């Protein structure tokens, strides 16, 4: 790739990682959307799939694969240092607005930024399953369609990837704590909202893909690229 294409790839990868880490912090809050209760991250996390579509479509599956692992590593670092900060003892003078002492501020800080190990494991497993399926399906559909019908490929890959993401996360995080029927309902609602955001963002995806392809100057098809998610070469 030329220098401009390299810069575009780095910028896209950086945005992907930023969206991923931001969504993890927002997931602690529940919000109401059209009468449905979903994590606040539901309005941000689907952007990672949109950016993942752009990475695979423009730069190829191999570049997307490296970026997915980069996001995984950065997420681990963020989680590790967040929990380290929570474990450090608070200084007596420290407080937060509306919290009168360091002990209360520490509890609020831990409740907002900390996650139970089960939730962290669920999030990381769901991320890897969903992102890799999304990228794999998009790459295969691009070959099958000869690069046509981008809207069908982005939405189709999101249908698969987001279903895997929501199913894995909700199952690992809440199995045994929530009745099975309720689990299915939660998965369906999250999946529906995420796919809806992807569909609404399709026009913007077209614009970004066209501009990046002009920079890259090459139409990539992953016909001879290994789809093994663990192969980084």
Q: Care to describe what's here?
A:
- By secondary structure, this protein is mostly helical.
- It has a single domain (3-216), classed as Arp2/3 complex 21 kDa subunit ARPC3.
- Helix content is 72%, strand content 3%.
- It contains 8 helices and 2 strands, in the order αββααααααα.
- It has helices at residues 3-26, 46-59, 61-87, 102-113, 117-145, 150-174, 180-200, 202-216; strands at 30-33, 36-39.
- The chain has a two-stranded antiparallel ribbon.
- A hairpin with a 2-residue loop joins strand 1 and strand 2.
- Helix 1 packs across helix 3 (61-87), helix 2 (46-59) crosses helix 6 and helix 2 packs parallel to helix 8 (202-216).
- The mean pLDDT is 87.
Draw up the topology in text:
Elements: H1 3-26, E1 30-33, E2 36-39, H2 46-59, H3 61-87, H4 102-113, H5 117-145, H6 150-174, H7 180-200, H8 202-216
Antiparallel strand pairs: 1-2
Helix pairs in contact: 1-2, 1-3, 2-3, 2-5, 2-6, 2-7, 2-8, 3-5, 5-6, 6-7
Mean pLDDT: 87
**How large is the count of helical segments?**
8
What's the β-strand tally? 2
Into which percent range does the helicity of residues fall? over 70%
**Major beta sheet, strand line-up:** 1-2
Annotated CATH architecture: Orthogonal Bundle
In the CATH hierarchy, the third-tier topology is known as Arp2/3 complex 21 kDa subunit ARPC3
The SSE order reads: HEEHHHHHHH
Give a quick precis of the structure.
72% of the residues lie in helices and 3% in strands.
Feature tags:
globular, 2 strands, mainly alpha, single chain, two-stranded antiparallel sheet, 8 helices, Arp2/3 complex 21 kDa subunit ARPC3
């Amino acid at each position: 790739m030329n220098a401009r294409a390299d810069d575009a790839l780095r910028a896209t990868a950086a945005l992907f990682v930023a969206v991923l880490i931001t969504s993890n912090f927002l997931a602690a809050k529940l919000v109401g959307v059209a009468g449905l209760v979903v994590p606040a991250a539901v309005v941000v996390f689907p952007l990672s799939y949109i950016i993942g579509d752009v990475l695979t479509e423009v730069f190829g599956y191999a570049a997307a694969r490296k970026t997915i692992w980069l996001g995984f590593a950065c997420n681990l670092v963020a989680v590790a240092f967040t929990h380290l900060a929570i474990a450090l003892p608070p200084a007596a003078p420290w407080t937060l607005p509306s919290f009168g002492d360091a002990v209360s501020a520490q509890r609020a800080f831990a409740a907002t930024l900390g996650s139970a190990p089960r939730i962290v494991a669920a999030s990381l497993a769901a991320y890897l399953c969903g992102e890799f399926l999304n990228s794999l399906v998009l790459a295969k559909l691009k070959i099958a369609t000869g690069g046509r019908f981008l809207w069908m490929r982005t939405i189709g890959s999101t249908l698969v990837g987001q279903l895997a993401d929501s199913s894995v996360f909700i199952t690992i995080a809440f199995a045994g704590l929530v009745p099975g029927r309720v689990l299915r309902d939660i998965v369906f609602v999250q999946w529906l909202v995420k796919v809806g955001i992807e569909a609404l963002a399709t026009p913007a995806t077209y614009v970004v893909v066209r501009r990046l392809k002009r920079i890259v100057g090459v139409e990539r098809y992953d016909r001879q690229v290994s789809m093994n998610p663990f192969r980084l070469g």
